[in-house]
Amino acid sequence: MTATYHVKTFGCQMNVYDSERIGELLEAEGYAAASIESADVVVLNTCHIREKAAEKVYSDIGRLKARTARPRVVVAGCVAQAEGAEIVRRAPAVDVVVGPNAYHRLPALLRDGGPQAAVDTDMPLASKFDALPARRSVVGASAFLTVQEGCDKFCTFCVVPYTRGAEVSRPAAALVAEARALIAAGAKELTLLGQNVNAYHDGDITLAGLIRLIAALPGLVRLRYMTSHPRDMGDDLIAAHGEIDVLMPYLHLPVQAGSDRLLKAMNRAHTRDSYLRTLDRLRAARPDIALSGDFIVGFPGETDADFAATLSIVAEVGYAAAYSFKYSPRPGTPAAGMADQIAESVKDDRLAALQAAIGATALAFNRASVGTRCDILLDRAGRRPGQLIGKSPWLQSVFVVSPAAKIGDMITVDLIDAQPNSLEGAPVPHLNSFLSAAA
Ligand code: SAH
Ligand code: SF4
Ligand code: F3S
Quick check: CB of 254 below 6 Å from ligand 1? Predict the structure, then answer.
Protein backbone atom coordinates (compact mmCIF):
# COMPACT_ATOMS: atom_id res chain seq x y z
CA MET A 1 0.00 0.00 0.00
CA THR A 2 1.17 3.49 -0.82
CA ALA A 3 2.02 5.62 2.20
CA THR A 4 -0.01 8.83 2.43
CA TYR A 5 0.61 12.35 3.72
CA HIS A 6 -1.26 15.52 4.59
CA VAL A 7 0.16 19.01 5.10
CA LYS A 8 -1.83 21.51 7.21
CA THR A 9 -0.72 25.11 6.83
CA PHE A 10 -0.83 27.92 9.40
CA GLY A 11 0.47 31.47 9.03
CA CYS A 12 1.59 33.45 6.03
CA GLN A 13 1.89 32.86 2.29
CA MET A 14 5.52 31.83 2.71
CA ASN A 15 4.26 28.83 4.64
CA VAL A 16 1.73 28.14 1.87
CA TYR A 17 4.62 28.03 -0.61
CA ASP A 18 6.70 25.81 1.71
CA SER A 19 3.74 23.45 2.17
CA GLU A 20 3.43 23.03 -1.60
CA ARG A 21 7.15 22.23 -1.78
CA ILE A 22 6.89 19.76 1.13
CA GLY A 23 4.04 18.04 -0.76
CA GLU A 24 6.16 17.82 -3.90
CA LEU A 25 9.09 16.39 -1.92
CA LEU A 26 6.92 13.71 -0.35
CA GLU A 27 5.28 12.81 -3.66
CA ALA A 28 8.71 12.41 -5.23
CA GLU A 29 9.36 9.98 -2.37
CA GLY A 30 6.27 7.90 -3.29
CA TYR A 31 3.73 9.34 -0.84
CA ALA A 32 0.20 10.14 -2.01
CA ALA A 33 -1.95 13.01 -0.71
CA ALA A 34 -4.74 12.13 1.75
CA SER A 35 -7.04 13.78 4.30
CA ILE A 36 -5.78 14.74 7.75
CA GLU A 37 -8.08 12.04 9.21
CA SER A 38 -6.48 9.19 7.27
CA ALA A 39 -2.90 10.18 6.30
CA ASP A 40 0.05 8.11 7.55
CA VAL A 41 2.19 11.24 7.90
CA VAL A 42 0.71 14.57 8.98
CA VAL A 43 2.86 17.68 8.61
CA LEU A 44 1.78 20.72 10.64
CA ASN A 45 3.44 23.71 8.98
CA THR A 46 3.25 26.16 11.85
CA CYS A 47 3.26 29.90 12.61
CA HIS A 48 4.78 31.59 15.66
CA ILE A 49 3.77 35.19 15.00
CA ARG A 50 1.17 35.50 17.76
CA GLU A 51 0.55 33.33 20.80
CA LYS A 52 -2.81 32.05 19.52
CA ALA A 53 -1.27 30.88 16.24
CA ALA A 54 1.52 29.05 18.06
CA GLU A 55 -0.80 27.37 20.56
CA LYS A 56 -3.08 25.95 17.83
CA VAL A 57 -0.36 23.44 17.01
CA TYR A 58 -0.63 21.75 20.36
CA SER A 59 -4.38 21.24 20.13
CA ASP A 60 -3.87 19.75 16.66
CA ILE A 61 -1.19 17.39 17.95
CA GLY A 62 -3.59 16.31 20.71
CA ARG A 63 -6.30 15.54 18.16
CA LEU A 64 -3.89 13.54 15.98
CA LYS A 65 -2.70 11.55 18.99
CA ALA A 66 -6.31 10.56 19.69
CA ARG A 67 -6.76 9.03 16.21
CA THR A 68 -7.14 5.22 16.28
CA ALA A 69 -4.38 4.74 13.72
CA ARG A 70 -1.95 7.33 15.06
CA PRO A 71 -0.08 9.02 12.19
CA ARG A 72 3.54 10.06 12.27
CA VAL A 73 3.43 13.72 13.26
CA VAL A 74 5.82 16.30 11.79
CA VAL A 75 6.01 19.83 13.16
CA ALA A 76 7.49 22.14 10.51
CA GLY A 77 7.59 25.93 10.13
CA CYS A 78 8.21 28.73 12.59
CA VAL A 79 7.12 27.03 15.83
CA ALA A 80 9.54 24.23 14.95
CA GLN A 81 12.33 26.77 14.54
CA ALA A 82 11.47 28.75 17.67
CA GLU A 83 10.80 25.87 20.07
CA GLY A 84 12.86 22.99 18.60
CA ALA A 85 13.26 20.05 20.95
CA GLU A 86 10.99 21.75 23.51
CA ILE A 87 8.06 20.65 21.28
CA VAL A 88 8.91 17.00 21.82
CA ARG A 89 9.17 17.51 25.59
CA ARG A 90 5.74 19.10 25.64
CA ALA A 91 4.17 16.78 23.05
CA PRO A 92 5.94 13.38 22.98
CA ALA A 93 3.61 12.23 20.18
CA VAL A 94 5.67 14.32 17.74
CA ASP A 95 8.01 12.27 15.54
CA VAL A 96 9.88 14.96 13.58
CA VAL A 97 10.57 18.66 14.16
CA VAL A 98 11.94 20.39 11.09
CA GLY A 99 12.63 24.12 10.65
CA PRO A 100 11.70 26.29 7.65
CA ASN A 101 15.26 26.17 6.28
CA ALA A 102 15.72 22.42 6.68
CA TYR A 103 12.54 20.85 5.30
CA HIS A 104 14.29 19.55 2.18
CA ARG A 105 15.71 16.93 4.57
CA LEU A 106 12.24 15.78 5.66
CA PRO A 107 12.14 12.66 3.42
CA ALA A 108 15.45 11.50 4.91
CA LEU A 109 14.28 12.28 8.45
CA LEU A 110 11.14 10.18 7.86
CA ARG A 111 13.12 7.33 6.28
CA ASP A 112 15.68 7.17 9.08
CA GLY A 113 13.16 7.75 11.84
CA GLY A 114 13.65 5.51 14.87
CA PRO A 115 11.81 5.57 18.19
CA GLN A 116 13.48 8.90 19.08
CA ALA A 117 12.01 12.08 17.67
CA ALA A 118 14.26 13.74 15.08
CA VAL A 119 14.86 17.48 15.43
CA ASP A 120 16.45 19.47 12.59
CA THR A 121 16.39 23.24 13.00
CA ASP A 122 19.67 23.99 11.24
CA MET A 123 19.83 27.04 9.06
CA PRO A 124 22.25 25.55 6.53
CA LEU A 125 24.22 27.89 4.30
CA ALA A 126 23.56 25.69 1.27
CA SER A 127 20.14 26.62 0.05
CA LYS A 128 17.26 24.23 0.58
CA PHE A 129 15.96 25.45 -2.77
CA ASP A 130 18.76 23.63 -4.60
CA ALA A 131 17.57 20.39 -3.05
CA LEU A 132 13.91 20.77 -4.11
CA PRO A 133 12.42 19.20 -7.26
CA ALA A 134 12.84 21.48 -10.33
CA ARG A 135 9.47 20.59 -11.84
CA ARG A 136 6.58 22.43 -10.23
CA SER A 137 3.07 21.06 -9.87
CA VAL A 138 0.56 23.86 -9.54
CA VAL A 139 -2.86 23.73 -7.99
CA GLY A 140 -4.39 26.88 -9.42
CA ALA A 141 -4.05 29.70 -11.90
CA SER A 142 -2.44 31.82 -9.19
CA ALA A 143 0.84 30.61 -7.72
CA PHE A 144 3.32 31.78 -5.09
CA LEU A 145 7.05 31.99 -5.66
CA THR A 146 9.37 32.63 -2.71
CA VAL A 147 12.20 34.89 -3.88
CA GLN A 148 13.59 36.10 -0.55
CA GLU A 149 13.51 34.82 2.99
CA GLY A 150 14.35 36.12 6.41
CA CYS A 151 14.44 39.52 8.01
CA ASP A 152 17.16 41.84 9.29
CA LYS A 153 14.78 44.55 10.52
CA PHE A 154 14.14 43.38 14.09
CA CYS A 155 10.92 45.20 14.83
CA THR A 156 10.75 44.93 18.60
CA PHE A 157 7.46 42.95 18.60
CA CYS A 158 8.34 40.36 15.97
CA VAL A 159 9.67 36.78 16.01
CA VAL A 160 10.35 36.49 12.29
CA PRO A 161 14.06 37.48 12.41
CA TYR A 162 14.54 34.64 14.90
CA THR A 163 12.42 32.01 13.16
CA ARG A 164 13.42 32.73 9.57
CA GLY A 165 16.95 34.02 10.05
CA ALA A 166 18.81 36.71 8.13
CA GLU A 167 17.67 38.16 4.80
CA VAL A 168 18.68 35.87 1.93
CA SER A 169 17.73 36.30 -1.75
CA ARG A 170 17.54 33.45 -4.26
CA PRO A 171 19.51 33.77 -7.53
CA ALA A 172 17.52 35.55 -10.25
CA ALA A 173 18.32 32.86 -12.85
CA ALA A 174 16.85 30.12 -10.61
CA LEU A 175 13.75 32.25 -10.03
CA VAL A 176 13.17 32.88 -13.73
CA ALA A 177 13.48 29.11 -14.28
CA GLU A 178 11.00 28.37 -11.49
CA ALA A 179 8.61 31.03 -12.80
CA ARG A 180 8.75 29.35 -16.22
CA ALA A 181 8.03 25.97 -14.60
CA LEU A 182 5.03 27.43 -12.77
CA ILE A 183 3.66 29.01 -15.96
CA ALA A 184 4.20 25.72 -17.83
CA ALA A 185 2.17 24.00 -15.08
CA GLY A 186 -0.75 26.40 -15.61
CA ALA A 187 -0.08 29.52 -13.53
CA LYS A 188 -1.38 32.76 -15.04
CA GLU A 189 -0.61 34.90 -12.01
CA LEU A 190 2.53 34.81 -9.89
CA THR A 191 3.00 36.43 -6.49
CA LEU A 192 6.65 36.88 -5.56
CA LEU A 193 7.04 36.29 -1.83
CA GLY A 194 9.47 37.36 0.84
CA GLN A 195 9.33 38.45 4.48
CA ASN A 196 10.86 41.63 3.09
CA VAL A 197 10.44 41.00 -0.59
CA ASN A 198 11.58 44.47 -1.63
CA ALA A 199 14.94 43.90 0.07
CA TYR A 200 15.54 41.34 -2.72
CA HIS A 201 18.90 41.63 -4.46
CA ASP A 202 21.08 39.33 -6.52
CA GLY A 203 24.20 41.29 -7.44
CA ASP A 204 22.86 44.36 -9.24
CA ILE A 205 19.41 42.84 -9.71
CA THR A 206 16.90 44.43 -7.33
CA LEU A 207 13.26 43.39 -6.94
CA ALA A 208 12.40 45.82 -9.75
CA GLY A 209 14.94 44.08 -11.99
CA LEU A 210 13.59 40.65 -11.09
CA ILE A 211 10.04 41.85 -11.78
CA ARG A 212 11.14 43.01 -15.25
CA LEU A 213 12.73 39.61 -15.99
CA ILE A 214 9.69 37.64 -14.87
CA ALA A 215 7.15 40.04 -16.43
CA ALA A 216 8.71 39.28 -19.83
CA LEU A 217 7.90 35.55 -19.64
CA PRO A 218 5.29 34.47 -22.22
CA GLY A 219 2.03 33.26 -20.72
CA LEU A 220 2.21 35.37 -17.56
CA VAL A 221 -0.85 37.59 -17.21
CA ARG A 222 -0.49 39.04 -13.72
CA LEU A 223 2.40 39.67 -11.36
CA ARG A 224 2.27 40.69 -7.69
CA TYR A 225 4.71 40.77 -4.76
CA MET A 226 4.52 40.81 -0.98
CA THR A 227 5.34 41.72 1.81
CA SER A 228 7.28 44.94 1.44
CA HIS A 229 8.95 47.10 4.07
CA PRO A 230 8.44 50.88 3.75
CA ARG A 231 12.18 51.44 4.14
CA ASP A 232 13.02 49.38 1.04
CA MET A 233 10.63 50.99 -1.49
CA GLY A 234 13.31 52.02 -3.99
CA ASP A 235 12.76 54.48 -6.86
CA ASP A 236 13.18 51.70 -9.43
CA LEU A 237 10.46 49.61 -7.79
CA ILE A 238 8.10 52.57 -7.65
CA ALA A 239 8.83 53.36 -11.30
CA ALA A 240 8.10 49.73 -12.25
CA HIS A 241 4.51 50.26 -11.10
CA GLY A 242 4.05 52.87 -13.79
CA GLU A 243 5.82 50.95 -16.54
CA ILE A 244 5.03 47.23 -16.38
CA ASP A 245 1.57 46.21 -17.58
CA VAL A 246 1.40 42.82 -15.87
CA LEU A 247 2.45 44.27 -12.53
CA MET A 248 -0.88 44.70 -10.75
CA PRO A 249 -1.89 48.06 -9.21
CA TYR A 250 -1.81 46.84 -5.62
CA LEU A 251 0.70 47.14 -2.81
CA HIS A 252 0.69 45.67 0.68
CA LEU A 253 2.83 48.07 2.70
CA PRO A 254 2.45 47.59 6.45
CA VAL A 255 2.84 50.69 8.63
CA GLN A 256 1.84 49.07 11.99
CA ALA A 257 0.97 52.34 13.78
CA GLY A 258 0.37 56.03 13.13
CA SER A 259 2.42 57.76 15.82
CA ASP A 260 6.14 58.41 15.48
CA ARG A 261 6.68 57.70 19.16
CA LEU A 262 5.27 54.21 18.73
CA LEU A 263 6.99 53.60 15.39
CA LYS A 264 10.27 54.39 17.12
CA ALA A 265 9.52 52.04 20.02
CA MET A 266 8.68 49.38 17.44
CA ASN A 267 12.04 49.98 15.70
CA ARG A 268 10.25 50.36 12.37
CA ALA A 269 12.94 52.62 10.84
CA HIS A 270 10.35 54.85 9.18
CA THR A 271 8.16 57.70 10.35
CA ARG A 272 4.53 58.47 9.65
CA ASP A 273 5.61 61.18 7.26
CA SER A 274 8.25 59.14 5.40
CA TYR A 275 5.64 56.40 4.92
CA LEU A 276 3.08 58.86 3.56
CA ARG A 277 5.66 60.43 1.22
CA THR A 278 6.47 56.94 -0.14
CA LEU A 279 2.76 56.52 -0.93
CA ASP A 280 2.76 59.91 -2.68
CA ARG A 281 5.59 58.72 -4.93
CA LEU A 282 3.72 55.49 -5.66
CA ARG A 283 0.52 57.29 -6.51
CA ALA A 284 2.41 59.62 -8.82
CA ALA A 285 3.74 56.56 -10.69
CA ARG A 286 0.46 54.59 -10.63
CA PRO A 287 -2.53 56.79 -9.70
CA ASP A 288 -5.01 53.90 -9.35
CA ILE A 289 -2.83 51.83 -6.99
CA ALA A 290 -4.73 50.06 -4.18
CA LEU A 291 -3.00 50.03 -0.82
CA SER A 292 -3.22 47.61 2.04
CA GLY A 293 -1.41 47.40 5.35
CA ASP A 294 -0.96 45.69 8.69
CA PHE A 295 -1.63 47.28 12.08
CA ILE A 296 -0.88 46.35 15.65
CA VAL A 297 -3.02 47.74 18.47
CA GLY A 298 -2.03 47.67 22.13
CA PHE A 299 1.74 47.79 21.65
CA PRO A 300 3.34 48.48 25.10
CA GLY A 301 2.89 52.10 26.10
CA GLU A 302 0.28 52.88 23.41
CA THR A 303 -1.70 55.91 24.64
CA ASP A 304 -5.10 57.15 23.48
CA ALA A 305 -3.25 59.81 21.47
CA ASP A 306 -1.02 57.19 19.80
CA PHE A 307 -4.06 55.15 18.91
CA ALA A 308 -5.86 58.21 17.54
CA ALA A 309 -2.86 58.69 15.22
CA THR A 310 -3.32 55.11 13.99
CA LEU A 311 -7.00 55.79 13.24
CA SER A 312 -6.11 59.01 11.44
CA ILE A 313 -3.48 57.40 9.21
CA VAL A 314 -6.07 54.81 8.12
CA ALA A 315 -8.40 57.61 7.02
CA GLU A 316 -5.58 59.61 5.45
CA VAL A 317 -4.31 56.69 3.33
CA GLY A 318 -7.74 55.31 2.47
CA TYR A 319 -6.69 51.65 2.51
CA ALA A 320 -8.45 49.29 0.10
CA ALA A 321 -7.93 46.58 2.74
CA ALA A 322 -5.91 46.13 5.91
CA TYR A 323 -5.17 43.53 8.56
CA SER A 324 -5.17 44.42 12.23
CA PHE A 325 -3.90 42.47 15.19
CA LYS A 326 -3.84 42.77 18.96
CA TYR A 327 -0.26 42.97 20.17
CA SER A 328 0.86 39.55 21.41
CA PRO A 329 4.03 39.47 23.55
CA ARG A 330 6.44 36.95 22.03
CA PRO A 331 9.16 35.20 24.03
CA GLY A 332 12.63 36.60 23.37
CA THR A 333 11.49 39.82 21.66
CA PRO A 334 12.37 43.22 23.20
CA ALA A 335 8.76 44.45 23.37
CA ALA A 336 7.70 41.49 25.51
CA GLY A 337 9.87 42.88 28.30
CA MET A 338 8.73 46.49 27.99
CA ALA A 339 6.88 48.23 30.81
CA ASP A 340 3.29 49.45 30.26
CA GLN A 341 1.84 46.34 28.68
CA ILE A 342 -1.72 47.18 27.64
CA ALA A 343 -4.76 45.52 29.21
CA GLU A 344 -6.61 42.99 27.06
CA SER A 345 -9.89 44.92 27.33
CA VAL A 346 -8.21 48.06 25.96
CA LYS A 347 -6.75 46.05 23.09
CA ASP A 348 -10.21 44.64 22.35
CA ASP A 349 -11.78 48.10 22.21
CA ARG A 350 -9.02 49.53 20.03
CA LEU A 351 -9.14 46.57 17.66
CA ALA A 352 -12.90 47.02 17.20
CA ALA A 353 -12.50 50.75 16.55
CA LEU A 354 -9.65 50.15 14.10
CA GLN A 355 -11.56 47.47 12.22
CA ALA A 356 -14.52 49.81 11.88
CA ALA A 357 -12.23 52.52 10.47
CA ILE A 358 -10.65 50.07 8.01
CA GLY A 359 -14.09 48.76 7.02
CA ALA A 360 -15.13 52.30 6.17
CA THR A 361 -12.14 53.04 3.91
CA ALA A 362 -12.42 49.60 2.28
CA LEU A 363 -16.10 50.17 1.53
CA ALA A 364 -15.35 53.61 0.09
CA PHE A 365 -12.63 52.10 -2.10
CA ASN A 366 -14.96 49.35 -3.37
CA ARG A 367 -17.86 51.77 -3.91
CA ALA A 368 -15.63 53.91 -6.11
CA SER A 369 -15.14 50.86 -8.38
CA VAL A 370 -18.87 50.37 -8.96
CA GLY A 371 -19.76 51.32 -12.51
CA THR A 372 -16.34 50.37 -13.88
CA ARG A 373 -15.29 47.32 -15.91
CA CYS A 374 -12.33 45.04 -15.18
CA ASP A 375 -10.91 41.55 -15.64
CA ILE A 376 -11.14 39.08 -12.81
CA LEU A 377 -9.15 35.88 -12.37
CA LEU A 378 -11.53 33.25 -10.98
CA ASP A 379 -9.98 31.44 -8.03
CA ARG A 380 -12.76 29.72 -6.06
CA ALA A 381 -16.40 28.70 -5.99
CA GLY A 382 -19.00 30.85 -4.25
CA ARG A 383 -21.74 29.51 -1.98
CA ARG A 384 -24.64 29.91 -4.40
CA PRO A 385 -25.03 27.52 -7.37
CA GLY A 386 -23.14 28.76 -10.43
CA GLN A 387 -21.42 31.44 -8.37
CA LEU A 388 -17.65 31.97 -8.70
CA ILE A 389 -15.26 34.37 -6.99
CA GLY A 390 -12.35 36.07 -8.71
CA LYS A 391 -9.79 38.76 -8.00
CA SER A 392 -9.76 42.16 -9.64
CA PRO A 393 -6.42 43.82 -10.49
CA TRP A 394 -6.78 45.65 -7.13
CA LEU A 395 -7.12 42.30 -5.32
CA GLN A 396 -10.79 42.86 -4.55
CA SER A 397 -12.90 39.69 -4.34
CA VAL A 398 -15.61 39.83 -7.01
CA PHE A 399 -18.63 37.50 -7.02
CA VAL A 400 -20.13 36.52 -10.38
CA VAL A 401 -22.71 34.07 -11.62
CA SER A 402 -21.38 32.68 -14.87
CA PRO A 403 -22.25 29.00 -15.36
CA ALA A 404 -20.02 28.63 -18.43
CA ALA A 405 -16.90 29.92 -16.65
CA LYS A 406 -14.59 27.83 -14.49
CA ILE A 407 -11.94 28.40 -11.85
CA GLY A 408 -8.73 29.58 -13.51
CA ASP A 409 -10.54 31.59 -16.22
CA MET A 410 -10.03 35.31 -16.58
CA ILE A 411 -13.30 37.04 -17.43
CA THR A 412 -14.39 40.62 -17.99
CA VAL A 413 -17.08 41.95 -15.66
CA ASP A 414 -18.97 45.14 -14.90
CA LEU A 415 -18.78 45.93 -11.19
CA ILE A 416 -22.35 46.51 -10.05
CA ASP A 417 -22.42 46.47 -6.22
CA ALA A 418 -19.98 46.87 -3.32
CA GLN A 419 -19.51 45.56 0.24
CA PRO A 420 -16.50 46.27 2.53
CA ASN A 421 -14.85 42.95 1.60
CA SER A 422 -16.25 42.15 -1.83
CA LEU A 423 -17.96 43.33 -4.99
CA GLU A 424 -20.56 41.90 -7.27
CA GLY A 425 -19.76 41.63 -10.97
CA ALA A 426 -21.82 40.97 -14.09
CA PRO A 427 -20.01 39.20 -16.94
CA VAL A 428 -19.84 41.28 -20.13
CA PRO A 429 -21.07 38.78 -22.77
CA HIS A 430 -19.37 40.11 -25.89
CA LEU A 431 -16.01 40.39 -24.07
CA ASN A 432 -16.16 36.80 -22.87
CA SER A 433 -16.96 35.06 -26.13
CA PHE A 434 -14.56 32.25 -25.24
CA LEU A 435 -17.11 31.19 -22.64
CA SER A 436 -19.93 30.59 -25.10
CA ALA A 437 -17.48 28.83 -27.43
CA ALA A 438 -16.49 26.51 -24.58
CA ALA A 439 -20.04 25.93 -23.34
N1 SAH B 1 7.45 40.93 7.06
C2 SAH B 1 6.16 41.41 7.04
C3 SAH B 1 5.14 40.56 7.80
C4 SAH B 1 5.42 40.20 9.19
S5 SAH B 1 4.23 39.27 10.06
C6 SAH B 1 6.19 42.85 7.47
O7 SAH B 1 7.15 43.35 7.95
O8 SAH B 1 5.19 43.51 7.27
C9 SAH B 1 2.69 39.95 9.58
C10 SAH B 1 2.11 40.93 10.53
O11 SAH B 1 1.88 40.35 11.79
C12 SAH B 1 2.97 42.13 10.82
O13 SAH B 1 2.93 43.07 9.81
C14 SAH B 1 2.37 42.62 12.11
O15 SAH B 1 1.30 43.52 11.86
C16 SAH B 1 1.81 41.37 12.75
N17 SAH B 1 2.61 40.98 13.93
C18 SAH B 1 3.91 40.64 13.98
N19 SAH B 1 4.28 40.37 15.24
C20 SAH B 1 3.19 40.56 16.03
C21 SAH B 1 2.93 40.45 17.44
N22 SAH B 1 3.89 40.13 18.29
N23 SAH B 1 1.68 40.72 17.86
C24 SAH B 1 0.69 41.07 17.00
N25 SAH B 1 0.88 41.18 15.67
C26 SAH B 1 2.11 40.93 15.18
FE1 SF4 C 1 8.79 41.24 11.53
FE2 SF4 C 1 9.47 43.77 11.20
FE3 SF4 C 1 10.80 41.88 9.92
FE4 SF4 C 1 8.30 42.44 9.22
S5 SF4 C 1 10.06 43.84 9.08
S6 SF4 C 1 9.18 40.41 9.51
S7 SF4 C 1 7.35 42.94 11.17
S8 SF4 C 1 10.78 42.19 12.12
FE1 F3S D 1 4.08 32.98 10.88
FE2 F3S D 1 6.52 32.31 10.30
FE3 F3S D 1 4.98 33.41 8.47
S4 F3S D 1 5.86 33.16 12.19
S5 F3S D 1 3.67 34.73 9.67
S6 F3S D 1 4.65 31.46 9.41
S7 F3S D 1 7.16 33.74 8.73
Answer: yes
Backbone dihedral angles phi then psi of residue 286, each to the nearest 5 degrees: -145, 85
Q: Write the Ramachandran bin of 113: left for phi over 0, alpha for psi from -120 to 50, otherwise beta.
A: beta
Q: What is the DSSP string of 44-96?
A: EEE--SSHHHHHHHHHHHHHHHTSSSPPEEEEEHHHHHHHTTHHHHH-TTEEE
236-255: pLDDT as tens digits: 999 999 999 999 999 999 99
Are 33 and 41 spatial neighbours (Cβ–Cβ below 8 Å)?
no
pTM: 0.95
The protein residue whose alpha carbon is closest to atom 24 in ligand 1 is 327
Give the phi and the psi of residue 337 in degrees, each rounded to 5: -95, 5
Tell me yes or no: is domain 253-369 CATH 3.40.640.10. no
Question: Which H or E element spans position 160?
Answer: helix 160-164
Grouping H, G, I as helix, E, B as strand and the rest as coil, residue 288 is coil
The CB of 236 under 6 Å from ligand 1? The reply is no
Domain coordinates of the chain in residue numbers? 4-120, 134-248, 253-369, 373-438
Residue 76 CB–ligand 3 contact under 6 Å: no
Phi, psi of 201 (to 5 degrees): -160, 135
Task: Decide if 253-369 and 373-438 have a common fold.
Answer: no
Q: Is the CB of 164 under 6 A from ligand 3?
A: yes
Q: Is the CB of 252 under 6 A from ligand 2?
A: no
User: How far is the CA of 156 from the CAs of 160, 250, 263, 338, in angstroms?
Assistant: 11, 27, 10, 10
CATH topology of domain 373-438: OB fold (Dihydrolipoamide Acetyltransferase, E2P) (2.40.50)
* 26 Cα–ligand 3 center, Å: 22
Q: Write out pLDDT tens, residues 74-117.
A: 999 999 999 999 999 999 999 999 999 999 999 999 988 777 88
Q: Evaluate whether the domain defined by 134-248 bears CATH number 2.130.10.10.
A: no
CA of 323 to the centre of ligand 1 (A): 10
191 lines ligand 1 (CB under 6 A): no
Long-range contacts of 267-275, Cβ-Cβ distance < 8 Å, separation of 24 or more: 267/153, 267/154, 267/155, 267/156, 267/334, 268/153, 268/155, 268/230, 269/153, 269/231, 270/230, 270/231, 272/309, 272/313, 274/230, 275/230, 275/313
Q: Give the separation between CA 25 and CA 105, rounded to whole angstroms.
A: 9
Q: Which CATH code fits 4-120?
A: 3.40.50.12160
pLDDT at 439: 45
Q: If you average pLDDT over every residue of the chain, what do you get? A: 94
